[in-house]
Amino acid sequence: MIKAFGNSPKLRILDYLLDYKLNDFTKKEIIEALGMSKITFYKYFKDLEDLGLVIPSRKIGRATLYRINLENPMVKLLIEYEMQLSLQIAEREAQKMKKVMEVT
């Protein structure tokens, strides 16, 4: 999705959480995984929470863990889009390989 829509902080956070749909993470873990500054992360993460795209999943001690909200209609659309985009890329690569095989 980053390749298709650009490298915005919100999209980077969503893309990461979509890649690990079944996992939950602390904010610190997400920041470190993305190599994003805390200021940038906190600026955009609240919007994702407010939209219901990201939800708290559990607490461990004082740390709250978050995950992508698989029940959110926008998240469902993003997952479907990501799947269609992947299929399109795979088809394009298959066509390239087919042309290479025809040449040799």
Helix and strand element order:
HHHHEEH
Strand arrangement across the biggest beta sheet:
1-2
Approximately what portion of the residues adopt beta-strand conformation?
A: 5-15%
- Main sheet properties: 2 strands, antiparallel
Shape: elongated
Uncertain residue segments? none
Mean pLDDT: 91
* Approximate helicity band: 55-70%
Supply the helix-strand structural class.
alpha+beta
Annotation, overall tally of beta strands: 2
The total of helices stands at 5
The radius of gyration over CA amounts to 17 Å
N- and C-termini, Cα separation: 33 Å
What order do the helices and strands come in, and which of them pair?
Blueprint (H helix, E strand, L loop, with lengths): L1 H4 L3 H11 L7 H8 L3 H13 L3 E7 L2 E6 L4 H31 L1
Antiparallel strand pairs: 1-2
Helix pairs in contact: 2-4
Walkthrough of the structure:
This protein is an alpha+beta fold and 104 residues long. Helices cover 64% and strands 12% of the residues. The chain has helices spanning 2-5, 9-19, 27-34, 38-50, 73-103, and strands at 54-60, 63-68. A two-stranded antiparallel ribbon has the order 1-2. Helix 2 (9-19) crosses helix 4 (38-50). The chain is elongated and about 60 Å long. The relative contact order is 0.14.
